[in-house]
Amino acid sequence: MTQGDTYMMRRFPRGGRIAALLLTTALLSGCAEANLFGHVAKKATSGDEAPASTGAAGTYKVGKPYQVGGVWYYPREDFDYDETGIASWYGPDFHAKMTANGETFDQNAVTAAHKTLPMPSVVRVTNLENGRSLVVRVNDRGPFVNGRIIDLSRRSAQLLGMEGQGTAKVRVQILADESRVLAGKAKPSGGPNEAPQVAAAPRESVTAETLPAPGSREQARPVQTAKAEGPARATVAADRVERELAAQEVQNLPVRSTAIYVQAGSFSRHDNALRLQARLSGVGHPQIQSASVKGQTVYRVRFGPLNSVEEADGLLNSVIAAGQQDARVIVD
């Protein structure tokens, strides 16, 4: 496949996403435009000109449930998020346009779009095909294409070694502490997601003491020392996270063999999995795989392993057309 073929394949689904977004703008609260992808950060050394960085200007946003292309998405805070699947990337067509949380897209910044995670949040994206792993800032919504779990900025795709091929098998893990730090910085002062600020800044530490009985010569004993974060400390922590993101450091992790599947459903009861397997027999030959998740046995109805992303895309569309709207592409 030529580079031009790859580019056209990537842009066609994106055009579908714009059309769907134009129909659902009212449901995406806080979005000022239909094409909302990216953010302003320090410019990478890629040769493409980007807007001068003035820091992250967007606000913290989770958002209400919304519908695109007949599919409902339910944004929420999920600090245990860990998912494998297929990543895509976007860049020139959306450079300098507004993101879903009010920032400006810089295709040379290390950012990404996700369908449901809070904005901003911080995730580690690992390319399971070459072992490259990168910490990325989520500040946008998408990708609204079946079978994709994250849409990376062009620079993120370059660093992860997937720009030329357009897609890659990835693992996406939220970094809970870093995400909470950025959320605290981005939340508006006095807004609904933030506790009210006290008039005086808290001390660096607070010590509690056990007082002796009246008349006793025993001295008071400190029993607890608690650190108080305070606005200044929170700002320092947020600045540290921003610096780490701007450093664009890529880790090289061991590569293990993985395969692509279309998962039609997952059940705690085997008989429910059997019923779905029978119902989808006209689509192909789904298998039931058992697995242990948080100490509980689940039964997954899956097609695969599949030979390529293109094969998975076609099969996924067939499974969805058969009525299984929650089907997805996974990597295992």
Average pLDDT confidence is: 78
Number of helices: 6
Q: Which class of secondary structure composition applies to the elements?
A: alpha+beta
Sequence of secondary-structure elements: HEEEEEEEHEHEEHEEHEEHE
Look up the CATH topology of the largest domain.
Answer: Barwin-like endoglucanases
**How much β-strand is present in the residues?**
25-35%
Q: What is the CATH class designation of the largest domain?
A: Mainly Beta
Question: Would you kindly provide a written description of the structure presented here, covering whatever features stand out?
Answer:
This protein has helices spanning about 5-25, 155-160, 175-185, 230-245, 270-280, 310-320; strands at about 65-70, 70-75, 80-90, 110-115, 120-125, 130-140, 150-155, 170-175, 205-210, 220-225, 250, 260-265, 285-295, 295-305, 330. The protein has about 325 residues and is of the alpha+beta class. The protein has 2 domains: about 5-180 and about 240-250, Beta Barrel (Barwin-like endoglucanases), CATH 2.40.40; about 260-330, Alpha-Beta Plaits, CATH 3.30.70.1070. Strands 3-7-4-6-5-8 form a 6-stranded mixed barrel. Helix 3 crosses helix 4 (about 230-245). The two termini are about 25 Å apart.
Summarize the structure.
The chain is α+β, with helices and mostly antiparallel strands and 332 residues long. Helices cover 24% and strands 28% of the residues.
